[in-house]
Automatic annotation (TrEMBL):
It comes from the Bacteria. This is Uncharacterized protein. Keywords: Membrane, Transmembrane, Transmembrane helix. The chain crosses the membrane at residues 19-38, 50-69, 81-101. InterPro entries: DUF6223 (IPR045770).
Length: 124
């Protein structure tokens, strides 16, 4: 096997770095979906916590992948997946945090639930 064939295998194959970055990106994308569902249906569920946890874990993993990458896109270091994990992770964590705030304090509704009753004890 020549050196060109080895380099071509790394450029198109699934390396360990690419696998880690892709897994982090897909996990954080699932966290974004959980965060969106938590914002749409704020009834008590684990979705805000899942979105927040996957977002933070994926962001940290993405930052490590990008920081430790030796080259740019196409080098097999997973840099594209790392950046995707960072973007999706920040989105997921933000949606999860907003859903938690909304559920616990009526943050996005100004303290009023959907029926019109004030969740903080004041009358409308």
């Amino acid at each position: 096997m020549s050196a060109a064939e080895i380099l071509a295998a790394d450029a198109y194959g699934l390396t360990a770095d690419r696998l880690i970055a892709t897994t982090a990106a897909l996990a954080t994308l699932a966290g974004v979906v959980a965060g969106i569902l938590a914002m749409v249906r704020p009834a008590g569920s684990l979705k805000p916590g899942i979105a927040l946890a996957t977002g933070l874990a994926g962001t940290i993993t993405g930052i490590l992948v990008v920081a430790l990458a030796d080259g740019g896109p196409g080098t097999g270091n997973g840099i594209v997946g790392g950046w995707a994990a960072i973007v999706f992770g920040l989105s997921s964590a933000t949606l999860g945090a907003l859903a938690l705030l909304r559920r616990r304090r009526g943050f996005l509704d100004g303290g009023v639930d959907h029926v019109g009753a004030d969740v903080r004890g004041r009358s409308s």
